[in-house]
Design a protein that fits this description.
The complex is a heterodimer of chains A (443) and B (417). Helices cover 33% and strands 15% of the residues of chain A. Chain A is globular, with a radius of gyration of 26 Å. Chain A folds into two domains: 286 residues, 3-Layer(aba) Sandwich (Rossmann fold), CATH 3.40.50.1110; 90 residues, no CATH class. In chain A, strand 14 and strand 15 form a beta hairpin. Chain A has a five-stranded parallel β-sheet, with helices on both faces. A two-stranded parallel sheet of chain A has the order 2-5. Chain A has a two-stranded antiparallel ribbon with strand order 3-4. Chain A contains 14 helices and 19 strands. The relative contact order of chain A is 0.14. Chain A has 443 residues and is α/β, with parallel strands linked by helices. In chain A, helix 4 crosses helix 14. With 417 residues, chain B is mostly beta strands. Chain B has a single domain, classed as Outer membrane protein transport protein (OMPP1/FadL/TodX) (Porin, Beta Barrel), CATH 2.40.160. In chain B, the strands form two sheets. Chain B has a 14-stranded antiparallel beta barrel. A two-stranded antiparallel sheet of chain B has the order 12-15. Chain B starts with a helix and ends with a strand. The chains are: A alpha/beta (443), B mainly beta (417). Chains A and B meet through helix 1 and strand 18 of A and helix 1, strand 2 and strand 25 of B.
Chain lengths: 443, 417
Amino acid sequence: MKKIFLIILSLALFTACERKISEYTVSKGNADFTKFITVGNSLIAGYADGALYHNGQRYSIPNIMAGQLQLAGSGAFVQPVVNSEYGVQFPGSGPKFKLGPKTDCTGATSLGPVPDLGTKEALAPVGYTVNNFGIPGAKSFHLLFPGYGLLNPYYSRFASNPQTSKVVDDIVAANGTFFALWLGDNDVLAYALAGGAADSITSPAFFQTAMGGVLQALTANGAKGVIATIPDVTVIPFFTTVPYNGLVLTRQSLVDSINNAMVNVYQVTLSQPYKVGQNPFLVFDATSSNPYKVRMMQPGELVLLTVPQDSLKCAGMGIISSSKHIPYPIPTQYVLTADEVTALQAATAAYNEIIKTGLAPMFNLAVVDMNQKLKSLETGITWNGISLSTTFVTGGLFSLDGIHLNPRGNAIAANFFIEAINQKFGSTIPEADITKYPGVIFP
Amino acid sequence: MRKFIFLLLFTWVTAMATFAGGYQVGLHSIRNIGMGLIGTSLTYDASSLFYNPGASPFVNEKFSISGGVTFLMSRATFQAKNEVYQEHVNHVMNYPFYFYASYKPIKDLCIGIAVNTPYGLSMSWPDTWEGRYLIQNVTFKSITIQPTVAYKIKDIIGIGAGLIISYGDVNLKRAIPLNGPDSTDGQLTVKGSTIKYGFNAGILVHPVKGLNIGIDYRSRINMSIKDGDATFAVPTSLASNFTYNKVDVSLPLPANLDLGISYEINEKIMIGLDLNYVFWSTYDSLKFTFKSPDASIPNLISTGAKLYKDRLITRLGVQWKVNGLLTVRAGGYYDPSPVPTDYLDPMLPSSDETALTCGFSLYPFKRFSIDASFEYLMGKKRSGISSPNDTPAGSHNFEGTYSTAFYMPGIGLTYNF
């Protein structure tokens, strides 16, 4: 009996054990992650939902990366912390967005981005040095401006001297041993966000010079780093959510009268007759021969997310004004025409060529082709049971401004950076668990 | 929005397809467990009703009653690829049981009833684990009742057949990647049960003294659940998109063809070999049909990929009657995974399995035994992706390494009289 008891006891001990699998081995390869610094614009700052706010910043790409790099000996990662969940207050700062019910001019209520109002943080210097030099709004060459803090409130929060200092000088002083650089989006994006009606595209030559200057500063002490390419406008939901042919007509009688009015009354040359179903919006075009200077949008042309939806739905914007009964084109600041898209894409391609074949080899950098990575997400992927795509809101990657990623998107971008670092420097930095980071928050 | 919901469910269903791979529980008699789960050619007690109805008339005594329970403990560990993340399953105990009773009104005729749990699965990962959007926990339980009749001719050949009445019960829980306020996940639960039928038929041949050859076929059972309960807990603003509250689940259980041969070398020692062929390849794809009470909302149908290959399980067992009081047994088997290479899912991380078993019977009285067994089933460490073929290029769907094991002590009673 005693023997049986012993057998049962040993079996019980045996079964208490967990199955063993050797754990992941972290190594830093031939890079030194002791002091990790990051440089860039809003994408690096942790800007999301139209604002730089506390939680967005907590889930910034650099902060997620730093958490993983700390497993390979990286030190504390300091961000210029915003304490408010609603952003930083300064003249011209817009609201943060949340998802909420929105009633449109037709009385229909649907879920969409609505202002998330609350007390913003007063603009003031944080009073400490930082590791994250992500500056919303910064273009490549802005980092070389003395006194850039006077122009950009976000830089003034952590500039060594907001009146005089240059970002590059602060970078040199930070003396990082490893860096991540994702800069240059605004060199095309600022123009794109203005619908091509304001701002300008930085010339590739100037971009190269500016980025070279930034990289000189980053590598002055021999630091290694990773650089990311610039996403094409056509992968960003801000430009892809409202289709060029979003004018939906349902009645044949209406279609007939519009066709008649356009051709015979307004003398507009139609690239295709109106039909029941989806039709291209009208846009302003100074080169058009008709008296109203309008034309139909063409495939490949983009409508911005900020286009006034109520005007499209109820006031006749994009077709015929319901009050004035004349053609009512979408104003040019809400549209990227074919020429503008071509110019943006050409510049983006040129920048990315400079990054991949010029700067990266010159400064011995790892490259993460974020443009290509985001493009591959367009049609959707599955990541640990989560379906993700670049579609606005339901795609689960972008935040409610349609430009910046949400925390889950940031975790994926951080993993893309880590993948590139591991490949280049022979390290084995573990990737982040993306399921720990929330997607879009639904009410 | 429908496409969006479909995408949410899609990955789960493909994951579900692997659920089938290996939920056959072989734990049907403590004595047989001790011998590597062989049984198709054995004629020692009423467990023949299940293993091979054709063998049941060869049980010597007029009555045979056998019952028992196994304490099934599963252990599994997951290591994510390229991540530090490692996780263990919750320690949940399951209790496959059996009860058999046979009666021979005349020498060559046997009638009997078999009650057991031939299929079942339970896998419970922590609710907040990394694979929660694929599965949190799943239990599938079945209880089968099999009235059986068998006849033998001249102590040489026996044939028998039984009707299988099977009750099945499914319970699944999975998180939905839709975040509400405070970043909480959504939740899907599926519950349902059904009763379905099949048959079990077998032949035993006893050509010479000591030698038995058995063949048995258990039909496939289409465990389709109709109108199970589906509960979607999602953020309030999305609730109107998830009005589905009923679900039909197709859950086919594969057919089995078993061939067994055993030989009594002498009065004391018997050796046996069983080959179990499982018809996984005829296994239909698993299908979920979510239904809304609002008739205007079309059903949401998701079909998983068909994945399986037939597999052949090879079992060996030996029994030694030490004396009138004690019989000891040992055995083992090899069970190759029906799930193709690289296709691995946390629902049931199937792998090639090797089992070692042992057991004994104590006879405090003549013809009455207390039976005990222990089985250790070890899964080969295996790496794979949850659904490598059905997800778009560039996907990153739960790639990692699993290590699994099952520990199964059991106890039973047998009385032949």
